[in-house]
Every structure is written in C-alpha cells, then in structure tokens.
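Office hours follow-up: a student asked to see two folded examples consecutively, so here they are.
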Amino acid sequence: MTYLPTFIRRDWLDVGDGHQLHLAQYGDPDGVPILYLHGGPGAGCMGGELALFGDNCRVLMLDQRGSGRSKPLGEINSNNLLALLKDLEKVRLWLDIPAWCLVGGSFGATLGMLYSGLYPEKVLSQVYWGLFIPSEDGTNWLYSHKGAAKLFADEYLAFTALAPFCSSVEQLFTTFRLGFKHKDADTRHHYICAWLAWESVLAMPASQRSNRDAAVSRSLAEIELHYASHQYFGAYSLMREISARIQAPTLILQGEMDWVCPTQLVENFLIEFGCDSINYSVIKSGYHGLADDKMFQEVVYALRKMADNIKEI
C-alpha cells in the first residue's frame, strides 16, 4: 500500500503585489522539511505528488503565483522570476525553517537551482528531474520548427495550425497571446488546447492529456506563454552566474527520452557552469515527468534516500 503523508494545515500567504500563495503542509511536523516546486510555470501542485514522500518528511506544497489554489488564478501581473524566488525565501522565513530540502521538476527544478545558488546556506539537499534550461536554445527546441518539431512533425503542424504564417518564435508567441484573449470563447479554447496538447506530446508521447478544468487550463497556458515570451525573465543568465555557488548535495535526474528538456542541453550546461555539488544521472528510457512510471520510481528512491541521509545528520 502506498504511503501518503497526512494533512497538517493550509494557509494563504500574502506576498504582496495582490498575490496570495497557497501553502499546504503534510506529513510529520517534526520531519525533514521539503519544499516541493511545481513546474509549468503555472502548473500548481497535484495531490498525486504526495506519493513521492516517505513518513519522515514535512512536505511543503506551495502553489506559485497565479497557480493552483493561489490567488488570483492565472494572474500574470507582478508574476516574474525574481518575484517567485523572493516568495520562496518569504515562505521559509514565515515558517521559521533555518534550512530545508528542495525538490521539483521541469521549471520547478530551474527555480530550485536558482534559489539554491542565491541562498546556498539555506538548502540542505535537493533532488530535481527534467531540469529545464531556459536559454534561447531551450526555447527554440520547444517552440521553433528546428527543435522537437523535427521529431514530432505532425504534432507540431497541429500545434501551429492556428499560427500558420509565423516565421519566428516571437511571432508564434504573439499569435497565441492574441488567441488566448480572443473575444470568442471557442477560439480561446482552441488556442489553449493547442498549446497544452503540444506540451503533452513532448512530456510523454502517446499519453493521454490530463483533465484540467477550463480555468486551470487557461491559467497554465497563459503563465507559460508569459514566461516564455519574456525569455523567463533572465533565468538563464542568472543560472550561469550562480550555479557554481550551490553547496547542497544536488541530484539531477534527466530522462533519456525527455523531449521537453533534452539531455544534451542539460549536459552542456552542467559541463560549462556546474559544480562539484551537482550529480547528474540519465534515466534510461525515461521521459520528462512523473507520469512516466520509471521516472516516478527513480524520484521516489532519490527522495527517500535524501530524507534518510538528512535525518542521520
């Protein structure tokens, strides 16, 4: 029987700028404090992710700005990289936790890597999967006709069918932004579905799309586009600058068949900007996220091992 951490409490934390963040705590109040960083950006935390954690953890499930149960849903004003990073430190101080562990996937892994470089003494240990490198190459891989589009040509044609005359990623983003705000509800729905369907194809080919309600789907698509069209607010430049400052033991698990965040981009980054604290492992036949059972099991093993090691200190 799968262990699921028990619910402790939930709060909405006012972090300013009109944003209130939803924070739910689970597990052992005296256990190893672990902050879960969801991806997207904008995806929010999911209940199934609690199965990752063992019985010696205090699990902190934080919905980032505009995401999940945070308020207001889908808000992109004052929603940027620096704000998200400052929010994490506000949460740590609010909880009065001297130092914690960080875990997360995709953009959540990006966010965690940045936080651990900015606040190295506040991170005990960390595990990430499907690390997203927010560079121009990373964006082009995702959205231009020169990257993942070559592997999934038919699906890319379906993705761009609503933006057939775009010669650049910037034009593609502009077209989708206008589509998301179209006065006709059905048209908005088509654009949102096209955006999320392409993402789903890359995350795990042949998988069924998750059943999000309309408001959550629109929120996710709009926040993802907001970050992508602003080049993730300088995240790549900051990653290059501070990754060498990371002190905590860090494990990055990357799926061999991760078509959202391909291994070559991650490996090139770590070779040039990584440090001795970072360990990297490719999961053979693994995909991008936790919907892949192989990746899920590898992450479970890594998180349980991390928590046990912290408990022994």
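And the second, which I mentioned at the end of office hours:
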Amino acid sequence: MTTQETAARYHELILQRKFIEIQDTLYDENIVCQEPEKATLMGMPVFTHGREAMKAKGIARRATIETMHSYACTEPIVAGEFFSVVLKQEVTFKGKPRVAIEEVGVFHVKDGKIIKEQFFY
C-alpha cells in the first residue's frame, strides 16, 4: 500500500474505533510509538516498541475509560512517507472528571506499514 492508501485505511478504521485491526493490519511488527514526556503522568511510557507491546498498552489504556462521550479524527494529511491526523475525544476516566483531549498523531509509513507513530498533546 502507498502512504495515501495506508492513511485512508487508518482513517476508515479509527472512525470505527477498530484499534486492534489497525494494529494487526497496518502496523509493522517492530513499530515504535512515542508519546510526549507528560504521558508518564498518566501512567503511560514515552516509548513503546513492537506491535504486541502496543496492543497491550492500548488495551490497558482503554480499560481506564469509564465513558467515551465522543471520538473524532480529521482526514489525514499525507506528505511523502508520512501522514498526520488530529484526534479529539471527550472521555471520563474511571474515578476522574470528564475531560476533552486533543492530539496530533504523525505516522511514518514504509513498505505499506506504519513503522512509527508519534503523538503531540
């Protein structure tokens, strides 16, 4: 798949909240995820390496959610081997007040697979 095709498929699946399918079909086995330093305050590592570790992190993160009030993703912007999206969600985490989260995700695609994702929030 081209970067454009990968981005379009990511967008299609993320709107359906099919996170595991994204990881199983679009992520390289050795994917790297980079979160901002402040992610540690939420109990998340700054770097996660490998598809299985990414899946485990996502499952653990979703388990902390009491209610997902809204979830949105912009159309991807593609440039060369990269695409980016803006993700917006309103969520209530267990035992915490409702919060609005807005982040930019930048994805590096090589040979039709996402090899790195980096989030800014």
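Two things to take away from it. The chain has one domain: 3-120. The chain has a mean pLDDT of 96.
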